[in-house]
User: Which sequence fits this backbone?
């Protein structure tokens, strides 16, 4: 019988931000059924890195951090008017 190779814990983050920044965004694939719309934007690699480091520092996923930012900028209560 072989020993099972341990995987990281549920929603575990790597020990350093640099390896996390360079990793593909697997969380978006896992949560695809949670939300009914997907928004794709183009950012520079440097911007992507800064966004991922900021999320890592706050202990949240990039998707959750950006959803919160968009909710603050575009709240439901104004009917979409600006």
Assistant:
């Amino acid at each position: 019988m072989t020993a099972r190779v341990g995987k990281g814990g549920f929603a575990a983050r790597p020990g350093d931000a640099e390896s996390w920044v360079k990793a593909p965004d697997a969380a978006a694939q896992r949560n695809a059924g949670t939300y009914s719309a997907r928004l794709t934007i183009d950012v520079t690699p440097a911007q992507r890195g800064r966004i991922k480091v900021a999320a890592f520092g706050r202990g949240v996923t990039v998707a959750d951090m950006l959803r919160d930012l968009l909710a603050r900028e575009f709240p439901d209560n104004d009917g979409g008017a600006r």
Remarks:
- Residues 45-58 form the longest helix (14 residues).
- Residues 72 and 78 are 11 Å apart (CA to CA).
- Helices lie at 17-22, 26-30, 45-58, 62-73.
